[in-house]
Amino acid sequence: MLSPEILEYYERGGERERLTAGAGRLEFLRTWDVLTRTLPPAPARVLDVGGATGVYARPLAEAGHRVHVIDPVPEHVAAAGALDGVTAEVGDARDLPERDASADAALLLGPLYHLPDRADRVAAWREAARVVRPGGVVVGAVISRFASLIDGVAKGYFAEPGFVSIVDRALGDGVHRNDGSVRQWFTSAYFHHPDEPAAEALEAGLTGVRTVAVEGPVWMTGPRLTEFLADPRLTGVMLDMLRRIEDEPSVLGASGHLLTIARRHA
Fold first, then answer.
1. Please, are residues 69 and 106 in contact by the beta-carbon 8 Å criterion?
2. Which of 155, 181, 189, 263 has a 20 to 30 Å separation from 4 between CA atoms?
3. Domain-by-domain residue ranges, the chain?
């Protein structure tokens, strides 16, 4: 279900701590903020497709939701299934082992940026639409087309010649291809232009589609971001400001990640 370099990246824990500090922590807080405003009230049945080790499944279960994780990595499934209130199984976002209209909401927070072919991404959206009830919500996360360019400057990756060609291709067709030889770079992925995820969701038959910026441009601020996140008051101010501009089209391309929210036709 996953290419060898992607599977190896996750098996060695490439994402295990990513959402705990810095820009990763901001990504988590903003994603959680959007979810709390988007998902139906608890107790709802939520399918967390590509939910990995349960970084979002855990707080969703703690909030009273019934959460089922479906992920292609067996180690992820074992970790998520060990969480209180969470069940998990191995599966593919393009062919979910779920009955029609069996969930209140479906999350695609991991699969879409590992499906380089548009047809596969639309299939994942279509499957998510199939398994939620009429009127149910689907939320999908993607990586911005320009994320590797920005990250390469912020982290100094452009000093290494191999990174230049990776970014050059990503800017051209969205495909970020890392064969795993340079481990500090993200594994192979697809980076969406801000216009693409909504178009894919619409093609899959979903309605009420909107795309919001997750981190906005704030993720580029480095040490200053860490200072904000260490202060609960400043964190609250930052989250409030980002919420106010999350729909601003001119901000979407500067955000590291985007969330697209849609519903199955009622």
1. no
2. 155
3. 4-145+188-263
For residue 43, cis peptide bond before it (omega within 30 degrees of 0): yes
Structure tokens at 242: 């980002």
What pLDDT, on the 0 to 100 scale, is given for residue 183? Answer: 62
The token pair at 246 is 């999350």
The CATH number corresponding to 4-145+188-263 among 3.90.1150.10, 3.30.1330.10, 3.40.50.150, 3.40.50.2000 equals 3.40.50.150
Total-model pTM: 0.93
Which segments in the chain show pLDDT lower than 50?
Answer: none
Torsion on CA atoms 114, 118, 124, 126, rounded to nearest 10: 170
Termini Cα distance of the chain: 32
- Cα–Cα distance list, 208 to 17, 41, 138, 205 (Å): 34, 19, 10, 10
Interatomic CA distance for residues 142 and 213, integer angstroms: 10
Please, what sign has the CA dihedral across residues 189, 194, 196, 202? positive
Predicted confidence at residue 144, as pLDDT, reads 96
CB 18, CB 191: distance < 8 Å: no
CA 83/CA 38 separation, integer angstroms: 23
Q: Quote the crossing angle between the two packed helices 223-230 and 22-38, to the nearest 10°.
A: 50
> Which DSSP string corresponds to 74-117?
HHHHHHHHTSTTEEEEE-BTTB-S--TT-EEEEEESSSGGG--S
